[in-house]
Inverse folding.
């Protein structure tokens, strides 16, 4: 009998409104009761969780694994290891791969590959439009049957509102959640950094806040029109938060997520043209950061994720406007969120933070995950919220190193990641 | 000899006071007059910073004695140094001023201390880029020996034998804002 | 005032102090004199190799740097983008590393990407001189503009300088703004609202879209070249409209103060940003700018290239 007992930890299970010091029992890969541990002679793994938080395995619903097609940046295998090292037991991978998962074969390939090599659960997102071109709908029904947990054109954004409307209506029929990378191409142009003081000073093409807000507005209207939830990915501006807040107050089915770098940094960071500060959407002003923090505090923004975007060193070590957008994030995500949201800015408590990484994404994507309910699969993350550590990029599990956080001193970290009862990573 | 405030750290030995400097430059002025019958063709070209003040003083003495205004100029040698890029501190360059044309003129290079001779070599290089004077002479307040090039002064205020590690310090009223003095700092 | 110059690179004016800027201008005084000698050459950079690496083409700036280098006795190589291996897909970093392997001591770089000179300066031992990077900075142009103003008006503090034209895409404008503000001038930017972003006000400049109001108050008017090719049509409707609202026509020139200086980085679009007569008229110091450019560049090459590494 494969049994694990996690002793004396602070069990935080938002789905069951639990927050208490208790022991957690795992039998044959499932959450169990004490009474299920029958055979006193069987081999029992004991884990001492004194001083630690015992949480449901965390979910990151915005990760780029780059496979198939770009395995020099990351693979499903290395990305999963990075997730485990970051405390995440379930990740949703984005469709801007090559080929694009706009067909069931590619979805099947990804699922198969993940089943064989990934140490955590990898759930694929399918494309909204064929080849992410924004012109024709992908076979969304078949994608749902093939097992996508959501559809998104992430990396790209459907510009034609009519096509987006039809996609949302179709997704409603099939019951698939819609996620959107909010970027109005005409307003953004070839913007590479937030349009504001720093872009003006440095002579770099700007990416105006209105470029995100225009599409957030579009999505709010369509969510109402089609009566189907739309989730806005990686939101960054004060205007987006305001629009979301107002729409949610009216009951519109719109939601939003935040990435750690958008609250850890501002556009001031780009002044030395270092490409590890170049991402899409870009770092914004302090006003926007403050609005994001408030949005997290009052629940307007309900989900946290990384937008983990690996790139090889030679790809990032070029002139700023030519460098690809994105930074890795799985292994710094939890540390940054705990450090900034719970400790530094005291915007939310650790329970809410765990909610935003468990039941919120699970509810949105209708996942059977994010809880420690009896008989749930034993995905557990042990967190030490007071652990001080220094980020050392060279020790990362990810195949890439494009992170601006090297050397940062953070407080809070996952110390053990358990998937299906088995420890897949520990500090 | 008057006691003056010393700013140096090592033991500095006074060599010349204001009176002595005055006397030496006056003598140099006389020698220049003797050797250069056509004073209107002479240019006293000082090497910044102190050479410029010394050149002006010599010109004033010549005016006192002969009632003739001798032209003065400035030769910046920093641009002509042969050791640019090997020093941690870059020499500050200044604007050179010489009356043109140089043909038929006698340029008297004026500096405070003559040591290895490299500064004077650079000065001659600089002069050459302006034109080709009839002759170049050299006037210095102090000759401390240890030449590394075949250069010899025509007019010397004082010969001062020194050891390699020692430093000759010159202070002039206008350039340094201190009373005139020459002192030798032992190593 | 003596200042120790310690920078191996000149990337922009934004990071220089007022003292450093003045030091370059003072050094340029000394080098300007070299241009009046019979033999216009000094040995300061003898034995050093300077590479003019112009990924974005330019004849004037490149020639100016080349002449400045030759007068300092450096050896000069000119490389343009099409001739270089950049077109074969070699990265900027690799191209530059190759040049360094050939013992290039000074790299003068003009590039379309903002930050490219900084990128190279961080990775190469050679001195990197920014000859213009995208819309970011063009430090030697601003330095020669400052030098020209100082030459004519003795000091820059307190002067009112108007910069007219396409500010948004102009590296000349940015470097000038940084330099002028540091030296205590008052700066007004003039141009269509689409090309003169309000964000600049946060730096301490004023903005006006009415050139007729600004001209009578200006001590210096610096005109930027209007390029309708580079700008997309979205920014302003056309040359005719620009001339009508912002061109320095001979009528408008009558509004200028008697001792106002007219400057232009060149090349001039006669009849567009400036009328032909005005470009050649009494206020214009455009040709002085070119001469001064040589002195300023000699100073910059001497200071950055002369430091031992």
């Amino acid at each position: 009998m494969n049994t694990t007992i996690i002793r004396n930890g602070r069990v935080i299970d938002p789905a069951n409104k639990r927050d208490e010091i208790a022991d957690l029992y795992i039998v044959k890969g499932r959450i169990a009761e004490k009474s299920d541990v029958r055979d006193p002679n069987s081999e029992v793994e004991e884990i001492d969780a004194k001083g630690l938080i015992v949480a449901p395995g965390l979910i990151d619903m915005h990760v780029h694994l780059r496979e198939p097609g770009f395995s020099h940046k990351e693979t499903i295998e290395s990305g999963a290891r990075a997730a485990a090292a970051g405390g995440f037991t379930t990740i949703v991978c984005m469709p801007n791969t090559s080929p694009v998962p706009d067909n069931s074969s590619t979805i099947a390939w990804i699922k198969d590959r993940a089943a064989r090599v990934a140490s955590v659960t990898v759930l694929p997102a399918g494309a909204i439009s064929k080849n992410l071109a924004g012109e024709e709908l992908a076979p969304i029904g078949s994608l749902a049957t093939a097992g996508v947990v959501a559809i998104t054109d992430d990396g790209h954004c459907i510009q034609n509102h009519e096509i987006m409307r039809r996609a949302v209506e179709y997704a409603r029929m099939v019951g698939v959640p819609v996620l959107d990378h909010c970027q109005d191409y005409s307003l953004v142009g070839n913007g590479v950094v937030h349009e504001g003081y720093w872009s003006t000073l440095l002579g770099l093409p700007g990416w105006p806040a209105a470029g995100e807000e225009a599409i957030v507005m579009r999505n709010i209207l369509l969510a109402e029109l089609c009566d189907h939830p739309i989730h806005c990915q990686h939101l960054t501006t004060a205007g987006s938060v305001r629009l979301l807040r107002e729409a949610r107050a009216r009951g519109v089915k719109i939601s939003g997520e935040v990435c750690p770098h958008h609250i850890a940094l501002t556009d001031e960071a780009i002044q030395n043209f270092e490409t590890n500060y170049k991402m899409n959407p870009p770092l914004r002003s302090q006003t926007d950061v403050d609005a994001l923090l408030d949005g997290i505090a009052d629940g307007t923004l309900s989900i946290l994720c990384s937008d983990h975007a690996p790139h090889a060193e030679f790809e990032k070590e070029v002139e700023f406007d030519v460098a690809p957008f994105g930074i890795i994030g799985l292994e710094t995500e939890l540390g940054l969120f705990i450090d900034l949201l719970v400790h530094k800015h005291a915007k939310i408590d650790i329970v809410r933070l765990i909610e935003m990484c468990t039941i919120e994404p699970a509810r949105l994507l209708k996942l059977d995950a994010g809880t420690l309910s009896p008989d749930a699969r034993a995905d557990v993350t042990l967190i030490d919220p007071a652990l001080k550590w220094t980020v050392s990029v060279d020790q990362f599990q990810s195949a890439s190193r494009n992170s601006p956080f090297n050397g940062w001193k953070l407080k809070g970290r996952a110390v053990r990641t358990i998937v299906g009862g088995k420890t897949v990573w520990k500090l | 000899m008057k006691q003056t405030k010393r700013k140096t750290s090592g033991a500095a030995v006074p060599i010349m006071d204001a009176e002595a400097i005055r006397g030496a430059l006056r003598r140099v002025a006389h020698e220049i007059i003797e050797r250069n019958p056509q004073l209107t063709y002479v240019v006293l070209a000082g090497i910044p910073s102190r050479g410029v003040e010394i050149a002006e003083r010599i010109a004033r003495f010549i005016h006192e004695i002969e009632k003739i205004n001798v032209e003065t100029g400035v030769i910046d040698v920093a641009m002509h140094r042969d050791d640019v890029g090997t020093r941690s501190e870059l020499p500050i360059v200044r604007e050179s001023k010489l009356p043109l044309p140089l043909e038929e003129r006698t340029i008297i290079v004026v500096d405070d201390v003559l040591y290895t001779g490299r500064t004077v070599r650079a000065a001659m290089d600089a002069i050459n880029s302006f034109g080709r004077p009839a002759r170049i002479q050299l006037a210095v307040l102090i000759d401390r020996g240890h030449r590394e090039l075949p250069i010899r002064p025509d007019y010397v205020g004082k010969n001062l034998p020194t050891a390699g590690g020692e430093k000759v310090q010159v202070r002039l009223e206008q350039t340094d804002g201190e009373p005139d003095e020459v002192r030798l700092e032992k190593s | 005032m003596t200042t120790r110059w310690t920078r191996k690179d000149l990337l922009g004016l934004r990071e220089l102090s007022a003292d450093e800027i003045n030091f370059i201008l003072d050094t340029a005084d000394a080098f300007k004199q070299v241009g009046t000698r019979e033999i216009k050459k000094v040995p300061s950079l003898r034995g050093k190799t300077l590479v003019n690496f112009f990924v974005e083409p330019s004849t004037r700036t490149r020639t100016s740097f080349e002449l400045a280098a030759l007068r300092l006795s450096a050896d000069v190589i000119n490389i343009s983008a099409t001739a270089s291996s950049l077109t074969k897909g070699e990265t900027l970093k690799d191209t530059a590393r190759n040049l360094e392997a050939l013992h290039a001591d000074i790299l003068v770089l003009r590039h379309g990407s903002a930050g490219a000179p900084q990128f190279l300066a961080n990775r190469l031992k050679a001195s990197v001189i920014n000859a213009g990077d995208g819309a970011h900075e063009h430090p030697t142009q601003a330095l020669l503009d400052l030098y020209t103003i100082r030459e004519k008006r003795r000091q820059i503090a307190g002067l009112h300088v108007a910069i007219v034209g396409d500010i948004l895409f102009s590296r000349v404008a940015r470097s000038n703004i940084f330099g002028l503000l540091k030296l205590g001038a008052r700066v007004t930017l003039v141009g269509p609202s689409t090309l003169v972003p309000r964000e600049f006000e946060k730096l301490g400049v004023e903005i006006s879209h009415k050139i007729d109001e600004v001209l009578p108050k200006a001590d210096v008017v610096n005109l930027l070249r209007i390029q309708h090719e580079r700008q997309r049509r979205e920014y302003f409707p056309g040359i005719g409209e620009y001339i009508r609202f912002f061109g320095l026509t001979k009528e408008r020139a009558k509004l200028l103060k008697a001792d106002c200086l007219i400057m232009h980085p060149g090349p001039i679009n006669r009849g567009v940003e400036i009328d032909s007569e005005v470009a050649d008229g009494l206020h214009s110091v455009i040709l002085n700018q070119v001469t001064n450019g040589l002195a300023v560049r000699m100073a910059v090459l001497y200071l950055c290239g002369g430091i031992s590494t």
Q: What stands out?
A: Chain C touches chain B at residues 2, 4-5, 27, 29-34, 37-48, 299, 302-303, 305-308 (CB under 8 Å). The CA atoms of residues 18 and 182 of chain C lie 6 Å apart.
